[in-house]
Amino acid sequence: DRTRAFLKVQDGCNYRCSYCTIPDARGASRNIPAAELVGEAEQIAARGVKEIVLTGVNIGDFGRTTGESFLQLVTALDAVEGVERYRISSIEPNLLTDEVIAFCAASEKFVPHFHIPLQSGSDRILRRMRRRYDTGRFAERIARVREAMPDAFLGIDVIVGFPGETEDDFADAYRFLAETIRPAYLHIFPYSVRPGTPAAEFPQQVAPETAAERVARLGRLSAELHAEFCARFTGQVRPVLFESTMRGGRMTGFTDNYIRVAVPYRREWVNRIVPVELGMPASAVPEASGYAGGDEFLTGRILAE
Questions:
Q1: Distance from CA of residue 269 to its chain's centroid?
Q2: Quick one: 171 and 222 in the same domain?
Q3: How many Cα atoms sit within 13 Å of 236 on the Cβ side?
Q4: Are 150 and 184 in contact (CB under 8 A)?
Q5: For residue range 248-271, what is the model confidence (pLDDT) as tens digits?
Q6: Does residue 250 sit in the same domain as residue 221?
Q7: H helices within 150-207, ranges in order?
Q8: Would 143 be classed as within a structural domain?
Q9: Number of domains within the chain
Q10: What residue numbers bound the domain in which 286 lies?
């Protein structure tokens, strides 16, 4: 609908997580120069697109082939005229530096929204996964983001049922997410065997029905956390970029901190960022029930005319 574009800034990965085939399938971490990506962003802006999502396999590792850094990239992109929003699709916690956090917090274009892979809230499982951090480091990064951007939406990736994951490991992970991190959303994956990876040969493969039950438990937690996050902003005014789709006489868009908002459809608001007073969650509005396939969203009242 021409309100959002995806800009691939990096490909490949030098990490060797025990469950992942990407280094073999996609090769080493690499990128084109930041100047070329700025040119692509300028072309996107010329088409009238307001928001760009930065994508890649391991985007925080940007600069391996050009001697640049991810901070240099986001600084250059921030200066592109016509782009009003940037989102960082996913960034490894060990690469989410203080400098990047500070830059995004000060920027008028980089929004308070981070998608950060955790994969497990158990230190024992993180070691088996060969991840490059532990839960203490992850929690410290989350705290740093929230200190700089208290309203930030934090989406977290989690893998459930990794080989050797005991009920105690899962309980540790659940507590870490529910009590320590409390993100806005969980993106939950049941572990899937990838032939040729070390994890495929690990003993104690978790039964599919056990993994499914754990996925369901985290799914319920995610729904609770997301509803809690959205409710924090009821009555606040946030900028919303509206999309063109109309369903049930309504249009939707996302706030800067990634809350879906619905208002009565008005063609003139398509592809515009508009200040909106956030109202009630969809579950509290009978005529809006089922609007977005069960996705949580808030009703809104447009303030700008």
A1: 25
A2: yes
A3: 15
A4: no
A5: 888 899 999 999 998 989 999 999
A6: no
A7: 167-175
A8: yes
A9: 3
A10: 237-302
Q: Tokens for 89?
A: 């699709």
Summarize the confidence of residues 126-130 as an average pLDDT. Answer: 98
Name the more confident of 23 and 40.
Answer: 40
Measured distance CA(244)–CA(266) in Å, rounded? 9
Q: For the range 215-222, what are the long-range contacts, defined as Cβ-Cβ under 8 Å and sequence gap of 24 or more?
A: 215/160, 215/161, 215/188, 215/190, 217/174, 218/158, 218/160, 218/174, 218/177, 218/186, 218/188, 219/186, 219/188, 221/174, 221/177, 221/178, 221/186, 222/185, 222/186, 222/188
Distance between CA 74 and CA 38 in Å, rounded?
10
pTM (predicted TM-score): 0.91
Beta-strand relationship, 185-190 and 153-160: parallel
**Where is the domain boundary, 210, 232, 254?**
232
CB atoms within 10 A of CB 262: 25
Q: At what angle do helices 98-106 and 135-148 cross, to 10 degrees?
A: 20
